[in-house]
Design a protein that fits this description.
It is a single chain. With about 300 residues, this protein is an alpha/beta fold. The chain folds into 2 domains: about 200 residues, 3-Layer(aba) Sandwich (Rossmann fold), CATH 3.40.50.300; about 70 residues, Alpha-Beta Plaits, CATH 3.30.70. The chain is built from 11 helices and 14 strands. Strand 1 and strand 2 form a beta hairpin. The protein starts with 7 loop residues before the first strand and ends with a helix.
């Protein structure tokens, strides 16, 4: 959280289609150089929010600002500072990767050959830039789409499903690329269903459901299971039974060869002391963390 002025700010942002309220008084702030995840089930209002941020549709109520300027009334100032990749990029398969960038650069105006070289290097396509796009893998096409979004050297990147359809190697490359972009000072706003990736790369996330903001928090805070520990022992069911006799261990449970339990005073050290005093030899005692997917499902009731 490094700037007084958020890079993106939504205030009471709303959008209705007839009687259906797609986005319901959404309040959100995204700061400079954040990798920010925007999550929600299908139909939750994510795409509608992104379309309003990109000036493609107008809000019914409230406002959305980018770099302190309201998008609707300052589109010509705001949008040149934004790069977007929305699902699968529109590319010319019969042209090379470099020529695709030239075509878009000509439309934008003022994009130099040097800048094209720079974005090809950023997305690691410099060795394949003269090959026709029809020969590219899906991951390469996604990276070329990101290169197009970077042509105007934007302050804010809005990416809708950037890992869409990628194989594991492609996902790793995209993950490293997005981290590098944030490290260089760019703000990256990601809408994604790949929650395991969001958990690995995003610093904060917002979760919406039925158009309403359900939760916004640092990822580390969300996945920390307060006060619970995982204990690895040879006899997990015996340990769970012993813990049930303690007032702090009433909810202990054996799962997948581990015992999940609270600890006396919430302390791992006290947990270890209890184990030793009661004759249990533990191979490991570690704080328990939840997956972002578990948190998402509990907050939205959605199917993954």
């Amino acid at each position: 959280m490094s700037t007084a002025q958020p890079v993106l700010r939504a205030q009471a942002l709303s959008k209705s289609y007839g009687k259906r309220l797609a986005v319901d008084r959404l309040d959100l702030e995204v700061d400079q150089a954040e990798l920010f995840g925007f999550l929600g089930p299908n139909g939750a209002g994510k795409t509608t929010t992104i379309r309003m941020a990109l000036g493609l549709i107008a809000p019914t109520g409230g406002s959305i600002e980018i770099l302190g300027q309201e998008v609707g009334s300052h589109r010509s100032r705001v949008l040149p500072r934004v790069g977007a990749l929305v699902e699968s990029p529109a590319l010319y398969g019969y042209l090379s990767g470099r020529d695709n960038l030239r075509v878009v650069g000509n439309v934008l105006g003022g994009v130099s050959h040097k800048r094209i070289d720079e974005v090809l290097e950023i997305v690691s396509l410099e060795g394949r830039d003269r090959d026709r796009v029809r020969t590219y893998s899906l991951g390469m096409k996604q990276r070329l789409g990101l290169a197009i979004a970077l042509l105007n050297d934007p302050d804010l990147l809005i990416l809708d499903e950037p890992a869409n359809g990628l194989d594991p190697a492609g996902i790793v490359k995209m993950r490293d690329l997005l981290r590098n972009l944030a490290s260089s000072g760019k703000t990256v706003f990601i809408s994604s269903h790949v929650l395991s990736e969001v958990q690995q790369i995003c610093t904060r996330v917002a979760i919406i459901n039925h158009g309403k903001l359900v939760r916004v928090a640092p990822v580390a805070e969300l996945i920390e299971a307060h006060g619970e520990f995982e204990v690895k022992v040879d006899s997990p069911h015996d340990l769970a039974a012993a813990l049930h006799l303690q007032p702090w261990g009433a909810e202990a449970r054996a799962e997948d060869g581990l015992v999940i339990t609270s600890a006396p005073g919430g302390s791992g050290r006290e947990m270890i002391r209890f184990l030793v005093q009661n004759g249990f030899e533990a191979d490991a005692v570690s704080p328990r963390h939840k997956d972002l997917e578990d948190i998402f499902l509990s907050l939205t009731g959605a199917d993954s």
